Amino acid sequence: MYLFVHEDREHLLEPGERFESDLGILEVPDEVSPGDVVETHLGNAFTVRRLRGPDLFTHLDRTGAPMMPRDVGLVVGKTGVAAGDRVLDAGTGTGILSAYMGRMGADVVSYEIDPDFAEVARNNMEIAGVADRVEIRTGDVTDALDELSGFDVVTLDTEDAPAVVERTPTLLSRGGSLAVYSPFVENTREVVAAAREVGLDDIETLDTIQREMDFDDRGSRPSTGGVGHTGYLTFARRP
Ligand SMILES: C[S@@+](CC[C@H](N)C(=O)[O-])C[C@H]1O[C@@H](n2cnc3c(N)ncnc32)[C@H](O)[C@@H]1O
User: Fold this and answer.
1) pLDDT of residue 224
2) Which end of the chain is more exposed for a tag (fewer CB within 10 A), N or C?
3) In a mutational test of the pocket of ligand 1, which residue from 158, 166, 230 has the highest number of ligand atoms less than 8 Å from its CB?
4) Which residues lie below 8 Å from residue 1, measured CB to CB, with a gap of 6+?
5) pLDDT score at 211
6) pLDDT < 70 regions, the chain
7) Is the peptide bond before 91 cis (omega within 30 degrees of 0)?
8) What CATH number does the domain containing 74 carry?
9) Separation CA 236–CA 239 (nearest Å)
């Protein structure tokens, strides 16, 4: 799959696909490369662009609320997730975090409790080109904890995350990292309490605030629009 970009419009299309819009009919050739320009029958030009992480956030089919790239960045920076790492992720949702980590070369096992969501996420991993690195398992992660151990990184984005955090002494390998995304502070407190209870080190919760800058003829200032609060991110490590 590639993105076909015309001014501020982008479409995710497969080689050989026929796409119709008010800009005309676009017959996507069987062989395309990034940078190629393909015209519709009305002469409107689309530039071919390969997919990268932020494109996945914009274009993958959405189910569970996807993690925003700014929060993914913090997860990557704070856990140090890297190529070759074994990662346990739950819940998969849209699979944005899983896809980013798979694209970095980590081997990810991700649990999704909703079978329909899991199916969409598997297709999303195909589009992201990481189906060989990201295994989506259908099921409740809390039911599978007895058979899981020794991960370099555990990433959680579920309401019942505290129950999983309680099991991190076996889920994580020594020195391994935990990252938990929680939209509400109440759930975050429970996550922190569970992390303390099982003796994790370096427990830290961050509220990510990011402001885009606007530059125009009148002056420069932080944007007055955009997304404000997303969630709280709690990090910790197994001693
Ligand atoms: C907010 S979404 C996760 C989004 C994901 N981090 C991403 O970047 O796309 C939460 C997902 O967790 C799933 N879920 C909730 N509890 C679960 C559990 N105990 N085991 C597995 N999946 C669970 C939900 O069905 C939902 O799809």
Assistant:
1) 84
2) C
3) 158
4) 12, 13, 14, 51, 127
5) 85
6) 227
7) yes
8) 3.40.50.150
9) 9
pLDDT of residue 208: 85
Which domain CATH number covers 22?
3.10.330.20
39 & 71 share domain: no
141 lines ligand 1 (CB under 6 A): yes
Distance 38 CA to ligand 1 centre (A): 38
Q: Give ∠ CA 143-145-147 in degrees, rounded to 5.
A: 105
pLDDT at 53: 94
Task: Give the pair of three-digit tokens for residue 77.
Answer: 């920076």
C-beta of 19 in contact with ligand 1 (< 6 A): no
**pLDDT value at position 11?**
95
pLDDT score for 225? 79
Pairing of strands 2-6, 9-13: antiparallel
pTM: 0.94
Kindly report the backbone phi and psi dihedral angles of residue 207, in degrees, each rounded to the nearest multiple of 5, phi listed first.
-105, 115
Instruction: Give me the domain span that covers residue 21.
Output: 2-50
Q: What is the dihedral of CA 90, 96, 102, 107, to 10 degrees?
A: 10
